[in-house]
């Protein structure tokens, strides 16, 4: 049973098609520079230093032995790594697998969706080493019973990650890399459904447009416009999942042009909003 893939997109595709999970491992120094959302939850486990990780409007330093969790509604991206090697694991898990393998007492989806959700914790060396061993065990070839063994190993990882997030209590205040950048992101998150301009966003962050654009490029390796679009698409997916019509969603998420919404959504998600709504109905 193949679980290790050369790209994140292949791991996500496998997890989505099989309603299970897929693993991406890389040592390359150039992670994807595009903001993205996908249909799987993700456990991101870096083993070396990186630059920054932007998750749903929060900017995090990426340090060795940090542990991140992202659900399918959170737009995210890792910026360019600082060193030649950027070693990391990504486990992509479809929500169906999470819920079908949970019990009355143990919710494997807890760390991805709980009301007090945090996205990052910093592991102690022994915790990081134990988690690394679980990833290596997941990728072994067990021969007879291989598929079942891998399902067990994936469940062990999910149990461990949920336990670690319940034990660690890291303040979100520690995630802020730059006050003005966070002000700008917070304003976009609160007003994404309005007619926003660079001038409006910069004014609310108390900086110039040039400074605003430079901060997004420096700390997030993306543009203000791309971040705004990713936020609107993320919220659109939530509303479509709640049963709202495509027209309602377009205008509720700040797309004053219906055709532009269809085109932008398809470019970001890969399918039209109508088809997306039907797939999750």
Protein described:
The protein is of the alpha+beta class and 281 residues long. The chain folds into two domains: 4-173, Regulatory protein AraC (Jelly Rolls), CATH 2.60.120; 178-280, Arc Repressor Mutant, subunit A, CATH 1.10.10. Helix content is 48%, strand content 14%. The chain is built from twelve helices and nine strands. It has helices at residues 8-18, 95-100, 110-113, 125-138, 146-167, 179-191, 198-204, 209-220, 224-241, 246-252, 258-269, 273-280, and strands at 4-5, 21-26, 41-46, 52-55, 58-61, 66-70, 76-78, 88-93, 120-122. The strands form two sheets. Strands 1-2-8-3-6-9 form a six-stranded mixed sheet, sandwiched between helices. Strand 4 (52-55) and strand 5 (58-61) form a beta hairpin. Helix 4 (125-138) runs antiparallel to helix 5 (146-167), helix 7 crosses helix 8 (209-220) and helix 9 (224-241) crosses helix 12 (273-280). The protein is globular. The model has no long low-confidence stretch (mean pLDDT 87).
CATH C-level name of the largest domain: Mainly Beta
Number-wise, the strands total 9
Order of adjacent strands in the largest pleated sheet = 1-2-8-3-6-9
Order of helices and strands: EHEEEEEEEHHEHHHHHHHHH
What is the tally of helical segments? 12
The termini sit apart by 29 Å
Overall 3D form: globular
Which homologous superfamily in CATH is the superfamily of the largest domain? Regulatory protein AraC
CATH topology of the largest domain: Jelly Rolls
Helix content: 40-55%
Our estimate of the beta-strand percent is 5-15%
**Unreliable residue stretches:** none
Provide the domain count: 2
Q: Radius of gyration over alpha carbons?
A: 19 Å
What is the overall pLDDT average? 87
Decide which structural class fits the backbone. Answer: alpha+beta
CATH architecture descriptor text of the largest domain: Sandwich
Largest sheet descriptor: 6 strands, mixed
